[in-house]
Amino acid sequence: MKHDFELAEWGETFMAAYSGGGCAGPRCTRCSTSFCVHCQPERMDEDCPAATAEGPRIEVKKIAAYFPMSNELAMEYGLIPDTRPPVVIPWRRRVRWAAQARVRRARLRVGSWVAGEDLDPDRYDYD
After folding, report:
1. Domains in the chain, please, with CATH?
2. CA dihedral angle for residue 74, residue 80, residue 81, residue 83, rounded to 10 degrees
């Protein structure tokens, strides 16, 4: 049985599957063999070794990599469960944040009143 070459989008044999050094040629979908049609034109009519075999040729590649990482990073990516206690923010800090937000809003209102237009960057009217 002959090679079963890759087909291009338009249905013809894709002759640029193998390219390098001015050479170009097809690639077989069964055995993954590729060659130059100019240098080895006789290979276009040879039998495919994968087609004559008992079954299809399957290539399996397995790569294992190990990466040392800290427990915090592994918890962040969800690789191990997060067993840390929840962070409790002190009440003084929460009160300070709330007070700062109120002061900021009051300053924006007064500045908007003086300037005559809305200065709040969080309120935009795109209509």
Report:
1. 1-59 (3.30.60), 86-120 (no CATH)
2. -60
Residues in the chain: 127
Alpha carbon distance 27, 15 (integer Å): 8
DSSP string covering 33-57, please?
A: -B--TTT-GGGGGSBPHHHHSSS--
Alpha carbon 47 to chain centroid, angstroms: 39
The 10 Å Cβ neighbour count of residue 112 is 14
Tokens of 118: 């809305």
- At 50-106, the pLDDT tens digits run 766 566 667 777 887 787 888 888 888 888 887 778 888 999 999 999 999 999 989
pTM for the whole structure: 0.37
